[in-house]
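hey m, so remember when u said the tokens were messed up on ur end? i reran from scratch. heres the input so u can diff it against urs
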Amino acid sequence: MTINCTDDVSHLDKYGQAYVWLNYKKNPLSPKTTIYNTNACGIGTITRTWEAEDPYWKIHTCSQTITVTGSALFTSADIKWPRDTVLEGCNPNPDPKNLPYLYAYPQFNRLKCSQPMYSYKDTKFTVSAGCMKIIREWKVIDWCQYVPNKYPAVGQWSYFQIIKLVASDTGAALICPRDTTVESKLDCKGAFVRLDSARAFSKCGYPLSIRNTSPYAKSKGPDASGDYPLGSTEFYYIAEYGCGKEIKCKVRVNVTNKIGPVPYCLNGLIVALMPVDTNKDGTPDDGMVQIWAKDFNVGSYHPCGYKQLKFSFSPDTSHMSQVYTCADLGKNEVRMYVTDSLGNQSFCKTYVEIQNNNARIPDCKRKDSLHQTIVSLSGLVLNPQGEACSDFELTLTGDQKTIINRMIDTVILTRYDTVVGKSGTVFFIKHLDTSYQFREDTTYQQWKTNAKTNQNGLFEFKDITQKNNYQLAIQRREQELRGININDAIVLLKHLSGTERITDPYKLLAADINGDLLITQSDFDLLYQIITGSASYDKMPIHWRFIRKPFLFADPLNPFTSKLESWFDFKNLQQTYSQLNFTAIRIGELDGFSGLQQLEDRNQWVIEEDLDWKLNVYPNPITHDQVLFTFQLMEAKNMKLEFWNSQMQLIKFASRSFDKGIQRWGIDLSDCNSTGFILYSLSDGDHTKYGKLMYSK
């Protein structure tokens, strides 16, 4: 008989049964043999043979052949192909065995009468770092139908599955330069602004592409330096990773015009006094004249074309006029200040000569002389190694002065006398009586002037008037760390742990990070937070400490017991001083570098280091004994890792060779037996990165 391969062949008796008649009774027999001559698809023949022996020992046999045919063929409708999918993560794995059921392998609706098999081949297309598309070509064949090397193909089906790999990094960060203000002192249109490059980091180790949207940047990459116009410019830095994911930060660049006006003064002005009768006795007893600052102007202008210029006798723009009396008889030096609408000032020196000519005021004499004796103050600002500190600003402050502006209001009174002539004619005689009303405006002003050190550390205050009280002081704050890094934190930690004490009094002063005149663990914590960027540099109370030079410490191992004066006081200054020297101590600078030039050189080295390879450490704080160092190398390197405990003892060392590209190095810290924190350094022989792991067993 003939059946289909889809029919059940587990119980063949339903297709026929052999019987034996014995003593008029029908007895069923079981087949002696059943031979399956079918292929893997279940198609072929099944032969069943029965055997029975009669009472006379004669053997009787019979057989049945069941033919199995395949009329219902396997088709593409019997295949469920894997669905398209998008995989996100640091390093998503597209292997089918890692994918969910519906996205992994082809599924088959039926397997009877068929023998389906599958295979796949991936073609990868990289869009960008962290963004890839995989075209996965699946092939299914039914071995019951498939004929190799036949065209068109028989028993073979193909399907393309699209898999998109997208980097998703919640730890990605974009570090942008701070808002910047630059003064334009040469160009009326703007100034060149140099900005630090933006930097981006990814815990997944993917390189991030950085661009800026500034219309004035020289390039559109991480460096937005360029020629910026006057005013405020806002733009964004954008770091892109994965398939178009972005991180943004906004930066503002302010360019202020600091170009002052160009003053032109008359070369002297001669003015005669007007008589003043203060006691109304008919005899002048004083003289006065009011002069305006603009009277000395002979063509002052602003190079940027600003028209609204103000003229005054002092930096106070309201001091536009000055009253002179007999006390000012003779030549008086004056300054004509020219101020633009932005507050920029310039001045020129000239003089006014007050004369008592036709007024003939008796006893009109100069009470004092304007030409007082002039002295100067100068000195050096050096670091503890004797190297010059250039461009440091010092302030010289004088006594508070009282400025009296005298003003006279002229009042003319008219009166008439009536006279009647002999003829009866009436005459009116007009009389004009002139009187003067005096007003005084008193202001108080603190005298102050500044000077900066030159490249040799020298400063000088010239033309200082004798017999006044002055105070010379210096202070300075930095905008950037400029060379302070993890090396300084290590020196401070060694001092605190007692493994290597600081004995130099100037370095001890530099180790007082929080300004409490003590060196404790809190100084290290603040320094480390500032170096790693978790705290602002402004958190440090002072950036420089200045003391008069020479200075004798009462206790060099505890310099804070000495009175650290950073100023000079002069009472009734009588002479010139040329040795007013200061020692400048950079707070936080502990590892041997000194001098601004060296700080700049070292800062440049750190920048080049950062550009060579990036480092990410995870997790931190450590929750288990395993920590993973991820870094990207531009070329093959031999890397070395060292770990120190809080006593600065080397507790672990490891080295390995790595190829170019993104590398991961797992370290087991179970044998370190440390608590609190661990310091580490990762070096490739040319550059070294330092860090701190918060570690608790």
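this time it looks ok to me. DSSP finds five helices and 42 strands in the chain. if urs says something different then somethings off w ur setup not the seq
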